[in-house]
Amino acid sequence: MSFKEYDLIVIGSGPAGEKAAIEAARMRKTTAIVERHSLPGGVCIHTGTIPSKTLRETVLYISGLRQRSVYGLVGGVKANISVKELMYRKDQVIQEEVDVIQQNMARYRIDVIKGVGMISDPHTVVVSDADNNTSILKGEVIVISTGTKPYRPERLNFDDHYIYDGETILNLDTIPRSITIVGGGVIGCEYASIFAHLGAKVTIIDSKERLLPFLDREIADALIYLMRKYRINLILGDGDKETYIENEEVVTITNNGRKIVSDRLLFAAGRSGNTENIGLENLGIDVNDRGLIKVNEMYRTSVDNIYAVGDVIGFPSLASVSMDQGRLAAIHAFKQGDTSSINNIWPIGIYTIPEVSMVGETEESLSENNQEYEIGIARYFELALGQIINDHDGMLKLVFEPKSRRILGVHIVGERATELIHIGQAVMTFGGTLDYFMETVLNYPTLSEAYKVAALDGFARIENRL
Prior knowledge:
CATH class of the largest domain: Alpha Beta
Radius of gyration: 24 Å
Largest sheet: 7 strands, mixed
CATH topology of the largest domain: FAD/NAD(P)-binding domain
């Protein structure tokens, strides 16, 4: 049994945990990360964000969508393409990302201790490795960054052959001819797009009346139109009631009695916190029914020196936000920085085909608060580059305050949406108005011009009000 003391102990090496450890190390604090898997990076690197986005990019190329806009080709996936071919690039990217993380750990002299960590008291983490060796770690501060796992209801038999969750779906042996996806959230919609562009018949079942209800309704409707255009069948307002295997196919019966038959099923209706058996019950740290930890605005739990960051605390469950949560927790814990300076205007990116991204208020959120607003819209077919890349369906929408013309929200569906959103985010951060885009010269031809077109459209709407 070994014993060692640290200023900071982090449990979990995903984006939040890694950034918490690095921030503490920059303050000259001795730091350790406890990681139960053989390689660092967490779900984000190994089974979540990085693999799914790499797979999406691979599909865009092999389906011809990337090429046809330039060469006029009709997209199509070659016959009998194997999963191994699809996953080749994914495995490369994961290894490269792991290498970067390991280099960062070495650079900042962060100890990575492999094993399962359990918090035995507010300053002690007991680590057990695969060989039943035990290490006792003492820490001034503990940060929990254990992430989440796919929610698996007991009524489903997740055999990972016919029925998969949002992580095991990456282990598919063959590309299915048809797939049913239960859950119309971000993960469900992203995989629906991927499989549809691989030529599979895709059906999404969701008990909600709307897909992605946090999106601006107009943008969500545009995405729904495009998903149906790519032959994705949407069954909304009707949940799954029963699922069974029959004649080597998956049969799903909905609450309203619909019967959907497919080769495979992906259940992507939520995730649960990885909080079992890490000692929270002994410390009086409560979790909700999905195993998520409650924290205050500085990510501190009910125990003063124990923090929790990343997906394990729930919304927004974005890797980008989790990184800043980790940094903030370390800064606050060691009182060596200004935590009030962190920008709380952060974007959401959804990697469907096409991409969707948003930042700030929606029309619905402003209406609920009885706040006056106006909008300006640019459609990609109005842009020269939109014509060049053959994206006629994309659109960018500005939501702004009519009198001051201050931008309150930006919403985009279309090619490069997750990159374009940062322009609007930057202008919003500095309290910018429509005038910035109307008075600024942008490169031509670019998709960034959509901001100028939307600003001019918004200004015209104000003038018509007068």
